[in-house]
User: Fold these one by one.
Assistant:
Number 1:
Amino acid sequence: MSSKHGKRYRAIASKIDPAKEYSFREAVELVKQTATAKFDESFDVAIRLGVDPRKADQLVRGTVALPHGTGKSVRVLVLAKPPKDQEALDAGADYAGLAEFVEKIQNGWTDVDVIIATPDVMGEIGRLGRILGPRGLMPNPKSGTVTFDVAKAVSEVKAGKIEYRVDKAGIVHAAVGKCSFSAEKLADNIAALYQSILRAKPATAKGKYIKSIAFSSTMGPSVRVADATMPAAPGSAT
């Protein structure tokens, strides 16, 4: 094992066989046991897909509502004109408005987790794409973040709706909760994400779609998971 890892990491990693694929339940419990940092670590899922992300018709992306939320506070900005900006604030948005926030973003401010916009302002915020795009913050109709129903969009995000997207290496990464969550809550959230990714399989994808699955905590080692043991739906994990 690499010497760059500290004593704590090496101690917890010794409990995991990197060559073994564990059952779903075993993997969840192992990640919970090895989450020994001084803060409540996120429970992370990495799923390698048999797609070519360079091809537009194989770019897997989507949104999913995690049944038990993410366990973290999500900062939401809504870019909208009156009265939609007030509607967003009433629904729980942290920030809402247009001109002042466009200017702040142009000056480098991106201190939010999700940005929602109404369709009528997209022309005004299109120039923010070079700043927001690389950070995964650019509003997009496919992810439900471009809508006139800002109250619903804010409520869904605050309740645990997340967006996922395959990266250049063909892997979907997502935080599905905190390691302090019960195994049952984590199982439900993972199942919701997994089934959403299965439904998002591109028609042009050839061969094996799910290449590999791994779970980990923020600061912990990766645990490989046997695909055949993944739950079919929330509440179905054994």
Number 2:
Amino acid sequence: MGLTNVYGVPGWGRHGDGPGAALIDGKAIAAEMRREVGEAVAARVAGGAPAPGLATILVGDDPASHLYVASKHRACAEAGIESIDHRLPADRPQAELLALIEDLNADPAVSGILLQLPLPAGFDAGAAIDRIDPRKDVDGLSTLSVGRLWRSQPALAPCTPSGVMELIHRSGCELEGATAVIVGRSELVGKPLAAMLLAANATVTVCHSRTRDLAAVCARADVLVAACGQPAAIGREHVKPGAMVIDVGINRGPDGVVGDVDFAAVQPIAGAITPVPGGVGPMTIACLLRNTLRAAEPAA
């Protein structure tokens, strides 16, 4: 089946008789989400409740991680969320990191806990993530959070796949009965996104490096999500005319940042497409803020 022509993206349906696929503006959608979170936080505080609090943990001195954490703190400030910054040298033992997480689990001022990845060599990231209280696991990466997601139980879901789902929904795409193909099976994006798409009643295929005839599998997709971490891996031959194409890839090269999709080749035949940058990227922090707000709300 094809997708119902219900995209709310301006210019949807231009393929074949116009300049190509409509652009899905992740910056605009993320800004809308951040406004919504800010308004909800303001209403919460006006009602006498404390502002949500996000505790970040940064281990070591990775420059990129420092930039990511700083951007998250700025976003929190804009939304009225309190941010608590914890930093540990890379030479501290794993036990000290675990003890810090336990302290934050018990701190009522902390609604959400974010452990910035990757951790330096010698740390067990999985064990540290699993020590985070699932009710505060705003990255949605602990074993319990992932299990709840696959069981369709209430859980804080990983931020990047949540952002993909928001882009799809807010663009007006009807997923029920649609064929969705994900290229990439990572724990961060591909696997949790498959669970979310299944919960939305899409028919889901997850492709990977061993998939036979990848182009043929992808070309059946009404919604195609590229999350394989390979520049321009998805070309015209992978895309069904009129499909929605979501590019999760962030690849830095001599020509700047590019996605996993060959945008110039795919944009003329797709129905709607995310650019890189400016597509999925801004959605991740917006979903982190929303998860922090949700974590602060009383359990139903």
Number 3:
Amino acid sequence: MSDQPIGVFDSGLGGLTVLRALVDLLPDEPVVYFGDTGRFPYGPKPREEVTKYALEIGDLLVDQGAKLLVVACNSAASVALDTLESRYSIPVIGVVAPGVRAAARVTQSGRIGVIGTVGTIASGAYQRAANLVDLDRREPLALTCAACPGFVEFVEAGDVDSDQVYVLAERLLAPVRDAKVDTLVLGCTHYPLLARTIADVVGRDVVLVSSADETAFEVRALLDGASGRRSAGGAVATRTFITSGDIHTFRALATRFFGPEVETVEAWSWS
């Protein structure tokens, strides 16, 4: 099991923020990343369709020998995590609960904002995760959730700081800014790539929380508990990238957002 890869997937490029955290924390672990850019975006799609996509990608990564599955897509994790967990014998980790736990540790006022895709916010997944965290707190968390349609599309186009992005952010982030939150959960793995613009709009005193690091810590704990960590000092860990979209566009943007380790990108076609 220890030499098998960690499987990570997202609707596109956003999950690379989670993969970056995983690779930095667990550099000896081989990984397989699947970016479903050919069927992106997931956010506006019906939950049944997103679940179907998640199961197809999960099957692919399990066939690739994945020892653990990371659903690095909030839209998929918010509607399909339970189904994925029941389908596979390997551990499956989402990004919703880790993000809420991290925000609960950071907030001083208990007022937390959550931004995500239309599908993620409508699913109620963050509210359910917050209710579980509340059980361990003296004061309940007060969540203000806002859907941010359009953010993901800008990131996938490689635009993270234009005037158009800023104007859109001013409009979409108004509810969380008006709620005077002190912590903001970036409830989509694409959103850390917009962190500078988001921080400018909500105010630099608001702490932005990404689930990437927290998810990576959870993966490490799971592997340690199952004695599934790959031994250090062996062969260089492989990093495989697969996309259902255009490989040249994926490689260019993945290199920009993830780093120079993105050398080979494999194409995948859904038949």
